[in-house]
Amino acid sequence: MKLADLAALAGVSTATVSRALAGHSSVNAQTRERIRSLAREHDVRPNQLARNLRLKSTGAIGLVLPLGHARTQHLTDPFFLTLLGFLADLLVERGYDILLSRVIPDADDWLERVVDSGRIDGLLLVGQSDQFAVIERVAQRYAPLVVWGAHRPGQHHLTIGSDNVAGGRLAAEHLIAQGCQRLLFVGDPAPPEFADRLAGFAAAARDAGLPHDVLTTPMMPEAVHAAMAAHLAGGTVPDAIFAASDVAAMSVLRALAEAGIDIPGTTAVVGYDDVTLAAHTSPSLTTVRQDLAIGAELMVDRLLKRIAGEPAQSAIVPPVLIARQSG
């Protein structure tokens, strides 16, 4: 059935039917509902593409995971899955379609190509990777862009994320309170979020008059496991390890167990994120929680404000230490 046929049934013009289906206020509520009821009965749907063109809207939001520093990382990472799930649920509830992609930056204009594609009304970036400068440049001209990541003084792009410096400090202070003195950070300190976690960890160690070491490794599970196993084989056994993420911490737990090292008796381990699996490792993982449900709500709220042309600012989610069996 065409709109003209529906108009004949409703006893109104085709233009009135079109406006009613689009929710236009020029059609009174009673007439709108009568036309929509007839449309449902006869399975008539407005042309969404045409409507979007009229409104200069695509009805879609981009969800992008940029992987400049960890090109083999996947969307199946528990942290990404959790945050993406929260974001997707919130966007669908608000009537948006989602364009999800994992981007390995292959040129300096990769982000321009995303925002200028004409396929999205706004963009959520999950992580800054090593692309801080690129994101900063694009955000100067493209307002509906919200990033999960670290905040730097004076930056232009809008970020939502946990206070990573405070989170790293929480981890170190907790380990030091257990009597630990040989502190080790495990992870990749290049991305801003991980760099901040290390900075907070190092600051707390210095405040306590304790040294700390850094085991730099890519964040993929097998890479962390191999680096940790090699470190232990060298004869150096720390009594406290802070891993830059829970997934990295799980690989640390595996390497320690394989080396016959008691956890937490000989070596205590703390992760970061509090993914669902953290409570189910053996031993269960002590970690720093960043509340991803709240973070996702803030990201979507700020993005929709930017899309509507309203002001919106960055926000920080306070971290919380979750003490379990590993340390």
Automatic annotation (TrEMBL):
Residues 1-55 form the HTH lacI-type domain. It comes from Sphingomonas aurantiaca. It holds the Pfam family Peripla_BP_3. InterPro entries: HTH_LacI, LacI/GalR-like_sensor, Lambda_DNA-bd_dom_sf, Peripla_BP_I. CDD domains: HTH_LacI. This is LacI family transcriptional regulator. It comes from the Bacteria. Keywords: DNA-binding, Transcription, Transcription regulation.
